[in-house]
């Protein structure tokens, strides 16, 4: 055994304690740490020869890399849609690494059963019935890939073409319809061989990011074969929701697979005042939910749901003698793009066990309240203009007056350099804009005050 490795093994409890203290110190200060750290050019170090041991690595990390890390787990990081990690989720994540389970197979541990239990709890949270099955994946993009891969197989079933055997080319051109699809849908279509050009945009309701269901029905009427419809349960700019129930109702007259992107908007189902937004989610054929957003578990973690596990098995089955028989309850390696995989379910299991439905509902409701607070402040300010109603947890706004992309880009840089908060740019209704997304369990009303003060400071400067 390498001397450094042997030395670290002998002192493993002390090393873990040192790492714990380093992590605890970082988290204790996350509320005051700069939300973003504008990157500077880094000079790569040469690959170590003999190595410096784990303690030396901790010191190197603390010296060279930690100062450049953003407080993305903190209360005022409002870029993208970024959650933090609840205390229980963090504990579960550490134990995930310590136990290092590979829940691809059920031959050697109970890890798969824990994942199945957690998936069942999540399905219950989102109002999905027993006909849905699911599995953990890395994020919303891979959940989208998985759902659309199953949809592709469904198109093949309708056409009498075994796509999983003969390939996407055997299926020929496909039609994918959506109003305001997330960019990951295009990425998935490219990855799956259906092509980005398969996507046809359907007109939106006036002043909305929600699809015009009447226009969708008209487009479906013109098709001479089945299609895939991608609906939104929460858009990234304004958290707008398609009328899922009305879209599902179109299935009575038209043949299509309904794929719903509920990456973070699906969490509206937890809050009684907002649950109506997700009505009809249980009528989908495949559903995307991202957990490292509003469930506040560490990256990377998402779940995919479908009512057609039989088609999912056709796409992802991995038959090999050393992997054992598929059986009545397929192992997860037969259901997702990955074979070996981290036990991503454990942090989610910990957080759901620790705080339950009520605890996670409180996080959702508080984030919505805070987003509306910031939206009201922006709407009342002469320096800013609110571009859309705050429907859930994202505030979409721009500086007052004529706005250029250069102006927005400069504001994004200035906000990042200020360090109080971090926001990401967007384009809404053809206009350059900013967006603030509230999904972190740590965020409080005091943070909103600090964020708005920073925005006014930057706008005035």
Automatic annotation (TrEMBL):
<protein>
    <submittedName>
        <fullName>Aspartate aminotransferase family protein</fullName>
    </submittedName>
</protein>
<dbReference type="GO" id="GO:0004058">
    <property type="term" value="F:aromatic-L-amino-acid decarboxylase activity"/>
</dbReference>
<comment type="similarity">
    <text>Belongs to the group II decarboxylase family.</text>
</comment>
<dbReference type="InterPro" id="IPR015421">
    <property type="entry name" value="PyrdxlP-dep_Trfase_major"/>
</dbReference>
<dbReference type="InterPro" id="IPR002129">
    <property type="entry name" value="PyrdxlP-dep_de-COase"/>
</dbReference>
<keyword id="KW-0032">Aminotransferase</keyword>
<dbReference type="GO" id="GO:0030170">
    <property type="term" value="F:pyridoxal phosphate binding"/>
</dbReference>
<keyword id="KW-0210">Decarboxylase</keyword>
<dbReference type="GO" id="GO:0008483">
    <property type="term" value="F:transaminase activity"/>
</dbReference>
<dbReference type="InterPro" id="IPR015424">
    <property type="entry name" value="PyrdxlP-dep_Trfase"/>
</dbReference>
<dbReference type="GO" id="GO:0017000">
    <property type="term" value="P:antibiotic biosynthetic process"/>
</dbReference>
<keyword id="KW-0808">Transferase</keyword>
<keyword id="KW-0045">Antibiotic biosynthesis</keyword>
<dbReference type="GO" id="GO:0006520">
    <property type="term" value="P:amino acid metabolic process"/>
</dbReference>
<dbReference type="InterPro" id="IPR015422">
    <property type="entry name" value="PyrdxlP-dep_Trfase_small"/>
</dbReference>
<dbReference type="GO" id="GO:0019752">
    <property type="term" value="P:carboxylic acid metabolic process"/>
</dbReference>
<dbReference type="InterPro" id="IPR010977">
    <property type="entry name" value="Aromatic_deC"/>
</dbReference>
<dbReference type="Pfam" id="PF00282">
    <property type="entry name" value="Pyridoxal_deC"/>
</dbReference>
<feature type="modified residue" description="N6-(pyridoxal phosphate)lysine">
    <location>
        <position position="293"/>
    </location>
</feature>
<keyword id="KW-0663">Pyridoxal phosphate</keyword>
<keyword id="KW-0456">Lyase</keyword>
